[in-house]
Amino acid sequence: MIAMTGKKSSYFPIWGLLLLAVVALWAELPIWLIFLILFIRSIGTAFHTPAINAIIPTIVPKDQLARCAGFLQGFESVSLILSPALAAVLYSVWNLSAIILLDVLGAAVAITMILLIRIPRVAPESKVNRVHIWEDTKEGITVLRREKGMMALLVIGSLYAFVYFPIGSMYPLITMTYFGGSVADSSVVEIVFSSGTLVGALLLGWWGNKIHKVIAIAVSIGIYGLGAMSIGLLPPGGLQALILLSGVMGMTLPFFYGLRTAILQCRIPNEYLGRALSLTYSASILTGPLGLILGGGISEAIGVQNCFFVCGVLAISLAFSVLVMPSIRNSCNED
Description:
With 335 residues, this protein is mainly alpha-helical. It has 14 helices and no strands.
Protein backbone atom coordinates (compact mmCIF):
# COMPACT_ATOMS: atom_id res chain seq x y z
CA MET A 1 0.00 0.00 0.00
CA ILE A 2 2.82 2.39 0.89
CA ALA A 3 4.75 1.59 -2.26
CA MET A 4 1.68 1.99 -4.46
CA THR A 5 0.64 5.29 -2.87
CA GLY A 6 4.15 6.69 -2.82
CA LYS A 7 4.71 6.09 -6.52
CA LYS A 8 1.24 6.87 -7.87
CA SER A 9 0.90 10.06 -5.82
CA SER A 10 3.91 11.45 -7.70
CA TYR A 11 1.86 11.53 -10.93
CA PHE A 12 -0.68 14.07 -9.58
CA PRO A 13 1.26 17.34 -10.14
CA ILE A 14 2.66 16.70 -13.63
CA TRP A 15 -0.66 16.59 -15.53
CA GLY A 16 -1.86 19.86 -14.06
CA LEU A 17 1.45 21.56 -14.85
CA LEU A 18 1.33 20.28 -18.42
CA LEU A 19 -2.19 21.66 -18.83
CA LEU A 20 -1.06 25.05 -17.50
CA ALA A 21 1.88 25.09 -19.92
CA VAL A 22 -0.34 24.33 -22.92
CA VAL A 23 -2.91 26.98 -22.00
CA ALA A 24 -0.18 29.57 -21.29
CA LEU A 25 1.32 28.87 -24.73
CA TRP A 26 -1.87 29.73 -26.62
CA ALA A 27 -3.77 32.15 -24.38
CA GLU A 28 -3.70 34.18 -21.19
CA LEU A 29 -4.00 32.00 -18.10
CA PRO A 30 -7.41 32.42 -16.39
CA ILE A 31 -7.17 32.81 -12.64
CA TRP A 32 -9.76 30.08 -12.05
CA LEU A 33 -7.59 27.54 -13.85
CA ILE A 34 -4.60 28.42 -11.68
CA PHE A 35 -6.73 27.95 -8.56
CA LEU A 36 -8.02 24.63 -9.89
CA ILE A 37 -4.51 23.31 -10.61
CA LEU A 38 -3.31 24.43 -7.17
CA PHE A 39 -6.27 22.60 -5.63
CA ILE A 40 -5.40 19.41 -7.55
CA ARG A 41 -1.74 19.70 -6.60
CA SER A 42 -2.74 20.07 -2.95
CA ILE A 43 -4.65 16.80 -3.20
CA GLY A 44 -1.55 15.16 -4.65
CA THR A 45 0.59 16.56 -1.84
CA ALA A 46 -1.85 15.15 0.74
CA PHE A 47 -1.01 11.68 -0.62
CA HIS A 48 2.60 12.27 -1.58
CA THR A 49 4.08 13.70 1.64
CA PRO A 50 2.79 11.05 4.10
CA ALA A 51 3.62 8.28 1.61
CA ILE A 52 7.22 9.44 1.18
CA ASN A 53 7.70 9.79 4.95
CA ALA A 54 6.18 6.34 5.44
CA ILE A 55 8.62 4.84 2.94
CA ILE A 56 11.71 6.28 4.64
CA PRO A 57 11.75 3.88 7.66
CA THR A 58 11.82 0.92 5.26
CA ILE A 59 15.11 2.08 3.74
CA VAL A 60 16.75 4.11 6.56
CA PRO A 61 17.94 2.63 9.91
CA LYS A 62 15.80 3.79 12.84
CA ASP A 63 18.74 5.35 14.69
CA GLN A 64 19.36 7.60 11.65
CA LEU A 65 15.79 8.77 11.06
CA ALA A 66 16.24 12.13 12.82
CA ARG A 67 19.38 12.88 10.79
CA CYS A 68 17.59 11.85 7.60
CA ALA A 69 14.69 14.21 8.43
CA GLY A 70 17.18 17.05 8.91
CA PHE A 71 18.90 16.53 5.58
CA LEU A 72 15.58 16.16 3.74
CA GLN A 73 14.37 19.43 5.18
CA GLY A 74 17.70 20.95 4.25
CA PHE A 75 17.12 20.10 0.58
CA GLU A 76 13.62 21.53 0.84
CA SER A 77 14.96 24.75 2.36
CA VAL A 78 17.50 25.12 -0.44
CA SER A 79 14.70 24.81 -2.98
CA LEU A 80 12.63 27.43 -1.14
CA ILE A 81 15.57 29.84 -1.21
CA LEU A 82 16.78 29.27 -4.76
CA SER A 83 13.46 28.70 -6.57
CA PRO A 84 12.11 32.29 -6.34
CA ALA A 85 15.46 33.74 -7.43
CA LEU A 86 15.76 31.29 -10.33
CA ALA A 87 12.15 31.95 -11.35
CA ALA A 88 12.80 35.71 -11.44
CA VAL A 89 15.84 35.22 -13.68
CA LEU A 90 14.06 32.81 -16.04
CA TYR A 91 10.97 35.03 -16.26
CA SER A 92 13.15 37.83 -17.62
CA VAL A 93 14.38 35.68 -20.56
CA TRP A 94 11.68 33.02 -21.11
CA ASN A 95 7.93 33.12 -21.48
CA LEU A 96 5.66 31.66 -18.81
CA SER A 97 4.86 28.52 -20.79
CA ALA A 98 8.54 27.56 -21.04
CA ILE A 99 9.04 28.08 -17.32
CA ILE A 100 6.07 25.83 -16.51
CA LEU A 101 7.41 23.19 -18.91
CA LEU A 102 10.68 23.29 -16.97
CA ASP A 103 8.66 22.45 -13.86
CA VAL A 104 7.07 19.58 -15.78
CA LEU A 105 10.53 18.31 -16.71
CA GLY A 106 11.62 18.44 -13.07
CA ALA A 107 8.52 16.50 -12.00
CA ALA A 108 9.18 13.90 -14.71
CA VAL A 109 12.76 13.42 -13.48
CA ALA A 110 11.52 13.03 -9.89
CA ILE A 111 8.88 10.47 -10.93
CA THR A 112 11.48 8.50 -12.90
CA MET A 113 13.79 8.37 -9.89
CA ILE A 114 10.97 7.14 -7.64
CA LEU A 115 10.03 4.44 -10.16
CA LEU A 116 13.61 3.16 -10.09
CA ILE A 117 13.59 2.72 -6.31
CA ARG A 118 12.64 -0.71 -5.00
CA ILE A 119 10.30 -0.09 -2.06
CA PRO A 120 9.67 -2.98 0.35
CA ARG A 121 6.01 -4.01 0.64
CA VAL A 122 4.87 -3.86 4.25
CA ALA A 123 1.10 -4.39 3.85
CA PRO A 124 -0.54 -7.81 3.46
CA GLU A 125 -1.25 -8.76 -0.17
CA SER A 126 -5.00 -8.59 0.45
CA LYS A 127 -4.76 -4.91 1.42
CA VAL A 128 -2.42 -3.66 -1.29
CA ASN A 129 -5.15 -2.72 -3.78
CA ARG A 130 -7.88 -1.98 -1.24
CA VAL A 131 -8.66 1.62 -0.28
CA HIS A 132 -11.39 2.45 2.23
CA ILE A 133 -10.89 5.98 3.48
CA TRP A 134 -13.10 5.78 6.59
CA GLU A 135 -11.79 2.38 7.63
CA ASP A 136 -8.18 3.44 7.07
CA THR A 137 -8.79 6.61 9.09
CA LYS A 138 -10.20 4.62 12.00
CA GLU A 139 -7.22 2.26 11.86
CA GLY A 140 -4.86 5.24 11.95
CA ILE A 141 -6.61 6.69 15.00
CA THR A 142 -6.51 3.30 16.71
CA VAL A 143 -2.79 2.95 16.11
CA LEU A 144 -2.09 6.46 17.40
CA ARG A 145 -4.12 5.79 20.54
CA ARG A 146 -2.41 2.45 21.09
CA GLU A 147 1.08 3.96 21.05
CA LYS A 148 1.44 6.02 24.23
CA GLY A 149 2.05 9.68 23.62
CA MET A 150 1.24 9.68 19.91
CA MET A 151 -2.22 11.24 20.26
CA ALA A 152 -0.72 13.87 22.55
CA LEU A 153 1.93 14.53 19.89
CA LEU A 154 -0.84 14.98 17.31
CA VAL A 155 -2.56 17.52 19.58
CA ILE A 156 0.72 19.38 20.18
CA GLY A 157 1.35 19.56 16.43
CA SER A 158 -2.15 20.87 15.82
CA LEU A 159 -1.83 23.57 18.47
CA TYR A 160 1.57 24.57 17.15
CA ALA A 161 0.10 24.94 13.66
CA PHE A 162 -2.60 27.14 15.20
CA VAL A 163 0.18 29.45 16.48
CA TYR A 164 2.61 29.10 13.57
CA PHE A 165 0.28 29.88 10.67
CA PRO A 166 -0.55 33.48 11.74
CA ILE A 167 3.10 34.34 12.37
CA GLY A 168 4.38 32.74 9.18
CA SER A 169 1.74 34.45 7.05
CA MET A 170 2.08 37.92 8.57
CA TYR A 171 5.78 38.57 8.07
CA PRO A 172 5.16 40.77 5.00
CA LEU A 173 2.38 42.61 6.82
CA ILE A 174 4.40 43.44 9.93
CA THR A 175 7.48 44.28 7.84
CA MET A 176 5.73 46.85 5.66
CA THR A 177 3.04 48.24 7.98
CA TYR A 178 4.52 48.27 11.49
CA PHE A 179 8.24 48.48 10.67
CA GLY A 180 7.76 50.65 7.57
CA GLY A 181 9.83 48.39 5.32
CA SER A 182 9.64 48.01 1.56
CA VAL A 183 8.76 45.02 -0.58
CA ALA A 184 12.50 44.33 -0.85
CA ASP A 185 12.78 44.37 2.95
CA SER A 186 9.94 41.89 3.15
CA SER A 187 11.78 39.64 0.71
CA VAL A 188 14.92 39.86 2.83
CA VAL A 189 12.97 38.79 5.91
CA GLU A 190 11.57 35.77 4.05
CA ILE A 191 14.99 34.81 2.65
CA VAL A 192 16.64 35.08 6.06
CA PHE A 193 13.87 32.96 7.57
CA SER A 194 14.35 30.28 4.89
CA SER A 195 18.12 30.46 5.33
CA GLY A 196 17.66 29.93 9.05
CA THR A 197 15.52 26.89 8.28
CA LEU A 198 18.33 25.54 6.12
CA VAL A 199 20.85 26.02 8.93
CA GLY A 200 18.50 24.31 11.39
CA ALA A 201 17.99 21.40 9.00
CA LEU A 202 21.74 20.92 8.60
CA LEU A 203 22.23 21.04 12.37
CA LEU A 204 19.50 18.43 12.79
CA GLY A 205 21.18 16.31 10.13
CA TRP A 206 24.45 16.39 12.04
CA TRP A 207 23.09 16.07 15.60
CA GLY A 208 19.78 14.30 15.04
CA ASN A 209 20.86 10.96 16.54
CA LYS A 210 22.51 12.59 19.58
CA ILE A 211 19.72 14.74 20.98
CA HIS A 212 16.66 13.98 23.11
CA LYS A 213 13.76 14.33 20.70
CA VAL A 214 11.09 15.53 23.14
CA ILE A 215 13.31 18.13 24.81
CA ALA A 216 14.48 19.37 21.40
CA ILE A 217 10.86 19.73 20.25
CA ALA A 218 9.94 21.70 23.36
CA VAL A 219 13.00 23.95 23.06
CA SER A 220 12.29 24.61 19.38
CA ILE A 221 8.70 25.66 20.14
CA GLY A 222 9.89 27.80 23.04
CA ILE A 223 12.57 29.61 21.02
CA TYR A 224 10.11 30.22 18.20
CA GLY A 225 7.62 31.66 20.68
CA LEU A 226 10.29 33.79 22.36
CA GLY A 227 11.26 35.18 18.95
CA ALA A 228 7.66 36.01 18.06
CA MET A 229 7.09 37.65 21.45
CA SER A 230 10.27 39.68 21.05
CA ILE A 231 9.17 40.89 17.61
CA GLY A 232 5.90 42.02 19.17
CA LEU A 233 7.86 44.12 21.69
CA LEU A 234 10.16 45.78 19.14
CA PRO A 235 9.76 49.51 18.38
CA PRO A 236 8.73 50.53 14.84
CA GLY A 237 12.39 51.20 13.99
CA GLY A 238 13.48 47.65 14.79
CA LEU A 239 13.58 46.28 11.25
CA GLN A 240 17.13 44.95 11.59
CA ALA A 241 16.18 43.10 14.77
CA LEU A 242 13.16 41.63 12.94
CA ILE A 243 15.46 40.24 10.24
CA LEU A 244 17.78 38.69 12.83
CA LEU A 245 14.94 37.17 14.84
CA SER A 246 13.31 35.74 11.71
CA GLY A 247 16.51 33.81 11.01
CA VAL A 248 16.61 32.42 14.55
CA MET A 249 12.95 31.42 14.36
CA GLY A 250 13.51 29.72 11.02
CA MET A 251 16.25 27.57 12.57
CA THR A 252 13.77 26.03 15.01
CA LEU A 253 11.30 24.60 12.47
CA PRO A 254 13.28 21.51 11.37
CA PHE A 255 13.73 20.49 15.00
CA PHE A 256 9.97 20.40 15.48
CA TYR A 257 8.70 19.01 12.19
CA GLY A 258 11.68 16.76 11.52
CA LEU A 259 11.78 15.25 15.00
CA ARG A 260 7.99 14.84 15.14
CA THR A 261 8.15 12.84 11.93
CA ALA A 262 11.12 10.82 13.24
CA ILE A 263 9.22 9.94 16.44
CA LEU A 264 6.23 8.71 14.45
CA GLN A 265 8.51 6.74 12.15
CA CYS A 266 10.16 5.07 15.15
CA ARG A 267 6.97 4.29 17.08
CA ILE A 268 4.32 3.44 14.49
CA PRO A 269 4.47 0.06 12.66
CA ASN A 270 5.39 0.53 9.01
CA GLU A 271 2.13 -0.91 7.69
CA TYR A 272 0.15 1.81 9.54
CA LEU A 273 2.65 4.66 9.30
CA GLY A 274 1.16 6.30 6.20
CA ARG A 275 -2.26 6.55 7.86
CA ALA A 276 -0.81 7.92 11.10
CA LEU A 277 1.23 10.53 9.24
CA SER A 278 -1.77 11.53 7.13
CA LEU A 279 -3.88 12.06 10.24
CA THR A 280 -1.13 14.10 11.87
CA TYR A 281 -0.72 16.34 8.83
CA SER A 282 -4.49 16.67 8.37
CA ALA A 283 -4.95 17.81 11.96
CA SER A 284 -2.33 20.53 11.46
CA ILE A 285 -3.87 21.61 8.15
CA LEU A 286 -7.27 21.95 9.81
CA THR A 287 -6.10 24.01 12.80
CA GLY A 288 -3.62 26.19 10.88
CA PRO A 289 -6.23 28.20 8.92
CA LEU A 290 -8.27 28.62 12.11
CA GLY A 291 -5.24 30.21 13.72
CA LEU A 292 -4.79 32.43 10.68
CA ILE A 293 -8.40 33.62 10.94
CA LEU A 294 -7.98 34.36 14.65
CA GLY A 295 -4.64 36.06 14.02
CA GLY A 296 -6.22 38.28 11.38
CA GLY A 297 -8.91 39.30 13.82
CA ILE A 298 -6.35 40.09 16.54
CA SER A 299 -4.26 42.10 14.09
CA GLU A 300 -7.29 44.14 13.05
CA ALA A 301 -8.31 44.76 16.65
CA ILE A 302 -5.02 45.47 18.46
CA GLY A 303 -2.31 45.58 15.78
CA VAL A 304 -0.15 43.02 14.01
CA GLN A 305 2.75 43.48 16.46
CA ASN A 306 0.46 42.53 19.34
CA CYS A 307 -0.67 39.48 17.39
CA PHE A 308 2.97 38.36 17.24
CA PHE A 309 3.28 38.92 20.98
CA VAL A 310 0.13 36.90 21.77
CA CYS A 311 1.18 34.05 19.48
CA GLY A 312 4.62 34.06 21.06
CA VAL A 313 3.16 33.72 24.55
CA LEU A 314 0.95 30.85 23.36
CA ALA A 315 3.95 29.08 21.80
CA ILE A 316 5.99 29.41 25.01
CA SER A 317 3.07 28.00 27.00
CA LEU A 318 2.84 25.11 24.54
CA ALA A 319 6.56 24.40 24.96
CA PHE A 320 6.14 24.12 28.74
CA SER A 321 3.19 21.77 28.29
CA VAL A 322 5.35 19.45 26.15
CA LEU A 323 7.91 19.22 28.95
CA VAL A 324 5.37 18.52 31.70
CA MET A 325 3.02 16.22 29.77
CA PRO A 326 3.83 12.70 31.05
CA SER A 327 2.35 10.88 28.06
CA ILE A 328 4.85 12.54 25.73
CA ARG A 329 7.83 12.80 28.07
CA ASN A 330 7.73 9.14 29.15
CA SER A 331 6.78 7.45 25.90
CA CYS A 332 8.71 9.32 23.24
CA ASN A 333 12.16 8.88 24.77
CA GLU A 334 15.00 7.44 22.78
CA ASP A 335 14.91 3.75 22.02
